[in-house]
Amino acid sequence: TQSTRPQRLLNAVQKNATRGDPRSVVKAIDDFCRHKEWAMNVGDEKGCILDSVVSEINPAAVLELGTYCGYSTVRIARLLPPHAKLITLEFNPDFAAIARQVIAWAGLEEKVQLVEGASGDWIPKMKEQFGITTFDLVFLDHWKDRYLPDTKLMEECGLLRKGSVLLADNVICPGTPDYLEYIRSSPRYESRYFKSHLEYTKVEDGLEKSVFKG
Ligand SMILES: Cc1ccc(Cc2cc(O)c(O)c(C(=O)NC/C=C/[C@H]3O[C@@H](n4cnc5c(N)ncnc54)[C@H](O)[C@@H]3O)c2)cc1
Ligand SMILES: [Mg+2]
Fold first, then answer.
1. pTM > 0.80
2. Residues forming the active site
3. CA torsion angle for 177, 174, 208, 40 (degrees, to 10)?
């Protein structure tokens, strides 16, 4: 049977990366996407911005919306302090299965909880299911029309505290106009745009970092 792109990406990780070495897993995926097949990972250029935001916050509780193959999951989890937790939501079972193996290859299973399901269903259950009070960092990288409804849902469910950071991928390309309009005009957020490029291309894209004011 024909393999899928995520399967070929996983093969590239298992062939070129060292088990237990997250940095080599990140490099293997970036090399695959740059030289073999483009895939919608946040990538190395925006990934460095993601790294600096994670390192600045040093979060104990992180939520990622949209795991895909687990590239940004590994990028974030490799920087987390001991006992910190990253919960990542992915509703496509095939992508989830690949991501689990990528995360395992990086040796980061202890820090990551991959939940198979839709953000809209799981955000309201975060407190009761995972004992989360609030998230220190949320990385939004799922369907672009879900950024705004899920942000409002996180507010309603009390998952954000004064100082919680939302970091949103692709605010230019593919673009998240309704989310940007809301977050930049809301008095409850302080937002900043980090100009960059669509992963592995010269097309403009960027990350929007928004701090919740409570
Ligand atoms: C025009 C155009 C097209 C594509 C691009 C290139 C480009 C560049 C990028 O960095 C991109 O992130 C994207 C993009 O579309 N990302 C969508 C990513 C979804 C993943 O998240 C999963 N998911 C989606 N909704 C949910 C949900 N509610 N609950 C749980 N998981 C969800 C899916 O199962 C996928 O695993 C596209 C640029 C421009
Ligand atoms: Mg993206």
1. yes
2. 141, 144, 169-170, 199
3. 150
Beta-strand ranges (E) seen in the chain are 61-65, 85-90, 112-116, 135-140, 160-168, 189-197, 204-212
Which of 70, 167, 151 is CA-nearest to residue 111?
Answer: 70
* Dist. CA 175–CA 123, nearest whole Å: 23
Supply the DSSP string of 120-140, one letter for each residue: HHHGGGHHHHH--S-EEEEEE
Section 133-162 average pLDDT: 98
Which ligand number lies closest to the CA of residue 147? 1
Closest CA to 75 of 34, 119, 30, 31: 30
Gap between the Cα atoms of 109 and 163, Å rounded: 27
Predicted confidence (pLDDT) per residue in 165-192, tens digit: 999 999 999 999 999 999 999 999 999 9
Nearest CA to ligand 1 atom 13: 40
Question: Which residues, judged by CB distance below 6 Å to any ligand atom, belong to the binding site of ligand 1?
Answer: 40, 66, 68, 89-92, 95, 118-120, 141-143, 146, 169-170, 173-174, 198-199
Which of 5, 102, 142, 204 has most ligand 1 atoms within 8 Å of its beta carbon, as the pocket-test mutant? 142
The single residue listed with the structure tokens 């220190």 is 136
Residue 74: enclosing H or E segment and its boundaries?
A: helix 71-77
φ, ψ for residue 142, nearest 5 deg: -105, -155
pLDDT averaged over every residue in the chain: 97
